[in-house]
Write a structure and sequence with these properties.
6 helices; two-stranded antiparallel ribbon; binds zinc ion; alpha/beta; six-stranded mixed beta sheet; globular
């Protein structure tokens, strides 16, 4: 058992298994040759599943607090995290991708960003630092480092344990979206997060 239990949340909703429809408005890439390339919530779920497999392989306990195609409310997500964190040292990592522009046209913004709460705890500061360090190292020459930014996000403000939110690329940038859908990109995401969490596990 690892000292810390690492909790992950996939942003937004997934695909309704009854009709194959993406359940969240917006939060998707523009169309390319008439087809939407990436639905953020569906892609976040793929990434969280792979991250949790990678964490377990490295002996780190990890739980998906969403594990549902439905778009679980932000309040319910925070409630789940705080319930689990009552009984065990936890960390929460909220998995997203970024968007810019009008939703119809591709946009030039790209890169990977790490977010922490405006009044972050020192453990959140360390978590953000390790995540950025490993993401930068694994994405050199692949995607831009957008640094660590402070935001008043619900998932960072309302959770009782150290927390970070990751924007893993821009689903509104055509070139980056193509990369984000590749195994190569996903492997780098998994390696970065597993390595950052391993460092956290060793030091806190
Ligand atoms: Zn998002």
């Amino acid at each position: 058992m690892s000292k810390t239990l690492f909790l992950f949340g996939s942003g937004h909703g997934g695909e309704n298994p009854d009709n194959g429809q993406y359940v969240t408005a917006g939060k998707r890439s523009p169309k390319h040759n008439g087809k939407t390339l990436l639905f953020e919530g569906i892609n976040n779920r793929i990434n969280v599943k792979l991250i949790i497999e990678g964490m377990k392989k490295s002996g780190l306990d990890a739980v998906d607090i969403v594990d549902d195609w439905r778009d679980i409310s932000l309040n319910e997500r925070a409630r789940r995290v705080n319930e689990i964190a009552k009984n065990r040292q936890c960390v929460y990592i909220d998995i997203h991708s970024d968007g810019m522009g009008n939703g119809k046209d591709w946009h030039s913004a790209s890169g990977i960003g790490v977010y922490k709460y405006v009044f972050s705890s020192s453990k959140s500061d360390f978590l953000a630092k390790y995540l950025r360090q490993e993401l930068t190292c694994n994405f050199t020459g692949i995607s831009k480092d957008r640094g660590i930014r402070k935001k008043n996000f619900h998932s960072l403000r309302e959770t009782s344990c150290p927390a970070c939110l990751l924007e893993l690329g821009f689903h509104t940038n055509l070139e980056e979206t193509k990369l984000m859908l590749s195994d190569n990109w996903r492997n780098r995401v998994v390696k970065s997060i597993v390595d950052a969490c391993s460092i956290y596990e060793m030091n806190h």
